[in-house]
Amino acid sequence: MGLEMVRLAESTYYFPGSTNVGLYTAGGSEAYLIDSGNDKESGRRLLSCLGSAGMSLKAIVNTHSNADHCGGNRFLQERTSCAVMAPPVEAAFLEHPYLEPAVLYGGMPPPELLGKFFVARPSKAERDGLSSLPEGITPIALPGHYFGMHGYLTSDKVLFAADSVFSRQVIEKYHIVFIYDVAAFLDTLDMLPTLGCALYVPSHAEPASDVNELAKINRDKVHEIADLVLDACKGPSSSDGVLKHVYDHYALRLDMSQYALAGSTIRSYITYLRNLGKLERTFDGNILRYVKA
């Protein structure tokens, strides 16, 4: 199945999909992709679409290194010798993608965390990070979801907002979206509307001229999860106990992938709440537990 290339403004396009991919054209036929989709097949379809439009791929500009955002990098780089640009810490993960499941799991990851959903094929990123971006693309730091995630604002005032905000559908289905730094995620949600963009294009939501409603949905869910974490810690609870409490509340079922993603996120919530002075930590019978302060 082919991709649809949707024009958003004079020089800015996007390819709708499970992970939206951005496109900025510089100098007419020079194409800069913002992310590359899930896998080799995504890269193949993107390259075919660019070729049909008479465009040549100059570079891939990655928002961050999660596999669904960089899965097409290797194929595109092999076929076109295009550059790959990313924030420095994300570039390290692009080149060494096994780091992602290792970080999520906190040790040698099991086989379930070594498939393409977690581990993209490695790609070679530019040493100078984002300093070689073309005129017309401005990086915007969007901390919270991942280590060095950035969005990219084009000269058309279109912001490719990465995973700084998720759709209502994603929130209602999963409830717990992956967050590395909860406080920073909330700060980014507050910051997004102040940018005054003509259009916001999240990676997992429809483009919107007003991001306030979507930001509120995400913010409300973060506070809801935080309250559930506190509720789970009325008596001393381990992080796995907190995860069970939250999943039981939403009638969700864990598998190994969700255990890694949601478990890591729950530990981030615990750190967030401890930093606010709302949780205390104790070792009880050599088990790390948390209790509401």
Properties at a glance:
Arc Repressor Mutant, subunit A, four-stranded mixed β-sheet, alpha/beta, 293 residues, Metallo-beta-lactamase, Chain A, 12 strands
Describe, in plain words, how this protein is organized in 3D.
- With 293 residues, the protein is an alpha/beta fold.
- The protein folds into two domains: 6-163, Ribonuclease Z/Hydroxyacylglutathione hydrolase-like (Metallo-beta-lactamase, Chain A); 223-292, Winged helix-like DNA-binding domain superfamily/Winged helix DNA-binding domain (Arc Repressor Mutant, subunit A), CATH 1.10.10.
- It is built from ten helices and twelve strands.
- The strands form three sheets. A six-stranded mixed β-sheet has the order 1-2-3-4-5-6, with helices on one face.
- A hairpin with a 4-residue loop joins strand 1 (6-7) and strand 2 (12-15).
- Helix 8 (212-232) packs across helix 9, helix 8 packs across helix 10 and helix 9 crosses helix 10 (256-275).
> According to CATH, what is the class of the largest domain?
Alpha Beta
Q: What value does the average pLDDT take?
A: 97
CATH architecture of the largest domain: 4-Layer Sandwich
Widest sheet: strand order?
A: 1-2-3-4-5-6
User: Secondary-structure element order, as H and E?
Assistant: EEEEHEHHEHHEEEHHEHHHEE
Tell me which oligomeric state these chains represent: single chain
What coarse outline follows from CA principal-axis ratios? globular
Class by SSE composition: alpha/beta
What Rg is obtained from the alpha carbons, in whole angstroms? 20 Å
Q: Considering DSSP H and I runs of 4 or more, what fraction of the residues is helical?
A: 25-40%
Report the β-strand fraction as a percent range: 15-25%
| Largest sheet features | 6 strands, mixed
**Model regions low in confidence, pLDDT < 50 over at least 5 residues:** none
CATH topological fold name of the largest domain: Metallo-beta-lactamase, Chain A
Number of helices: 10
| CATH homology-level superfamily of the largest domain | Ribonuclease Z/Hydroxyacylglutathione hydrolase-like
Secondary structure tally: strands:
12
